Every structure is written in structure tokens, then in C-alpha cells.
Amino acid sequence: MNHVTTENSLEILSMRYGRSLLPLSVAAREIGINLRTAHNQIGKGKFPVPTILQARRRYVHVEDLAGYIDRLRRTAGTESHLSKEATRTSGRTEKMEVQTSHA
Fold this sequence. Notes:
Layout: H1 2-17, E1 21-23, H2 24-31, H3 35-44, E2 52-54, E3 57-61, H4 62-75
Helix pairs in contact: 1-4
């Protein structure tokens, strides 16, 4: 069954873009992150898809992007692929207060 989902993602991306190398901006949009975030993750070695530097521009193989999207689908119900740090709503971390009732 995993092979079927990879084929479908690959087919969808191939039909949508019609090429095997996608610009980083397209890959970032497909996985739902900002282009600046993608560049930051690449700089830290944490971008989830291998990239290629060609003529001073970053590209992603459509097969690698499809595989990553399929892995996200498989894990979507069991765990979040975002860290707690990435899901914060503001720039500051909030302290969790434990309330105890005193009788």
C-alpha cells in the first residue's frame, strides 16, 4: 500500500509541475512552510528533503518531495512532524503553571 501512495503523490506532483526538479520555493509551498524557513532549515542541516544547488539556486527532486509528503501522511495520525518549538504561537515560550487546590 505504501507504493500506491508514493505513486499517487509522484503522479500528482509530476502532473502539476511537469518536471523532475522543482525550485525550493515550490517545494516549500508544497510542504506548507515559508521559503525563508526552508533556507534557514537548509543552513542548519534540518530541511527534510535533499536539495541540489544548481546555478546558485536550490532545487528538489520531485521523487524526494513525493516521498517526504507520503511519510507525512503515514505519520499524521500518530505524531506531529513539527516540534513543540515550531508550533508556538508567539516568539516567547510560555510557562505552564500547575494549579493545586488547597483544602
